[in-house]
Structure formats: C-alpha cells, structure tokens
Amino acid sequence: MTEAAKVIEIDKLSLVFPTSDGDVQALQDIDLTINQGDFVSFIGPSGCGKTTLLRVIANLEQATAGSIEVNGMSPEEARLARAYGYVFQAASLYPWRTIASNIALPLEIMGLKGDAIRARVEKNLELVDLAGFGKKYPWQLSGGMQQRASIARALAVEPDLLLMDEPFGALDEIVRDHLNEQLLKLWAKTNKTVVFVTHSIPEAVFLSSHIVVMSPRPGRIHEIIESNLPAERDLSIRETPEFLQLAHRVRDGLRAGHSYDEVV
Ligand SMILES: Nc1ncnc2c1ncn2[C@@H]1O[C@H](COP(=O)(O)OP(=O)(O)OP(=O)(O)O)[C@@H](O)[C@H]1O
C-alpha cells in the first residue's frame, strides 16, 4: 500500500499571545500529522486552542515556536497558493450580493472570467444541494442554506484542503444533522482533506476519521483517536455500539484532559 501524502505536518508547535495581563500560552508542543483524505476534528473545552490551531494552519496566526508545513509549504506560501478553503462559524456572506455572486467573489479575485466563473458557481451550488438558489440574496435563505452557500464559496476555489471552524455550531440539531450527512457525502465524493473544529462529541464522532482531543491551559493535544467506523456512514450509525464506544472514549479523553467537568 502506498503511503498517503502528508497535507499538514506540525512539529512541537507553540503559540503565545502577549496580552496586557501577561502572556497567554494558547498552544503548547503540538505534534500532528494530517494525511490526504483525512477528516480530522479538533474537540475540546472552550479556550483549549482549537480555533487558534486552525488559524495557524490558515496563516491567520503565527506560531511562536516549532514548525508547520501545509502541502510541503509554509502556511504563508500555502495561503498564497490558495491551498485551502476556510469556512467560518457564521456564514459571512455579503448581504448585497446574490448567493451566486458571493460564491463568484473569490473566483473573480483569482482572475477567472465570465463562463468559467458561472460554471464553477453552478457546480458548487449543486454540490451543496443549492442548485437554483444562485439568484437569491443571503437573507432570503435559511441559516442552514446560508452555511451551505459559504461551504460552496470555500469549495469554489477547488482546494484539496477544507478548514472549517464550527460551521454548524449556531444551527439547530435537525439542520445540523442534515448538514453533517451532506458534508460527509461531499467528503466521500471529493476525497478532500477536512480539518473541522467542533464542541460536539456526536458531531466529531460521526464525521471524523481522526478525533484530536485537546485540553486547555495551555492548549495541548491530549489524545488522537482514530475512528474504527466504516467510511460510509449515515446518521443511523449513531445508534450502534461502535459509535457509542467511540463517543465514550472521546468523553473520557476530554475529562482526563482537565481536572473538572466542564460542558463541552
Ligand atoms: N488574539 C488573541 N489575543 C490574546 N489571547 C487570545 C487571542 N486569541 C485567542 N486567545 C486565547 O487563546 C486561548 C485559545 O483560544 P481559542 O479561541 O483558540 O480557543 P477555542 O478552543 O477555539 O475556544 P472556543 O471553543 O471557545 O472557540 C484562549 O485562552 C483565548 O483566550
């Protein structure tokens, strides 16, 4: 079997934020390798550094020690090469642009023109099940549809790597379930590498091939759990003993990672 290509390689990475109250050690000694086609979730209590770690990968924050490579490049080079798409917690679409022209925006910035843009917009609207909604404005769509549109925008630049910071955190459970299923189908269809921040144990277990359990003060990786669930899953898998066992392992890891019970 050939070895999967390394997409992200992080070695002894630390990050300190200097603040007026003193230094905040947001990340300490992070070692992590993510391979092509992995679906990796970061889970942990508030403040354990999940978002900061994702932002370091995206070159939105700088590590203070250690090293990180994205597709064999520095995060800055990877950003300039548009190696990833980034999906924020809120859909962050421009309200004065239609859904189609929101998705077109990064393509315009890339220098694509007319038909090439239209074709990519259509293709990605279809991928997230929003074909026919391109002419609508964001406020005419539900929260879940807006979030799908922002995923389509991230996918439109055709990155192999998708960075997602709690993209479904603000949505109700039913919509979230539906989007979890759609995201998993998309992942299976496109063989992308996904790095996904979440507070939800069921979401992490349902989606991931690898679950990175983090602990706070300072933010560290407590444990990396590899999923033994089949790659093809639907929501019914959540009733199986294998799923519940994995969820228990994640919960135990979260408990062991800090000294008090905190809702995550
Ligand atoms: N720009 C900043 N300046 C100073 N401290 C920061 C900054 N950004 C984050 N921090 C601190 O770094 C730590 C990690 O924050 P981060 O947002 O990465 O955690 P998180 O696990 O994503 O939390 P949440 O689940 O609440 O989003 C926290 O203690 C936070 O207060």
TrEMBL record:
Keyword Acetylation set for record: no
Domain ABC transporter: from-to ranges: 8-241
Enzyme Commission number(s) of this protein: 3.6.3.-
CDD domains named in the record: ABC_NrtD_SsuB_transporters
EC top class, as a word: hydrolase
Keyword Iron: no
Keywords: ATP-binding, Hydrolase, Nucleotide-binding, Transport
Example GO molecular function: ATP binding
SMART domains: AAA
Similarity comment text for this entry: Belongs to the ABC transporter superfamily.
Protein's name according to its UniProt entry: Aliphatic sulfonates import ATP-binding protein SsuB
Native organism: Granulosicoccus antarcticus IMCC3135
